[in-house]
Design goal:
mainly alpha, 3 helices, about 0% strand
Amino acid sequence: MPQPGCGAANAGHGRSQISAAIAKQAEGAGLRPAVSVRHSPAFELASRIADLAPAGLDHVFFCNSGSEAADTALKIALA
């Protein structure tokens, strides 16, 4: 059985800064489908990522998993 928190081991174990940031986001979170409801922190992060990306790569779409990302990328390509 996996140990609690092992998914975040690359960021450190038991870091209070990480749990505080997660708690802050959870306070304002609800079920917000990314395609229909604006979530300001996500838009701000997407803008920062797009600014760092090479020219022409200026769109950011967040997904919950690798399989969702692949499925979404295929749907966008086909559209």
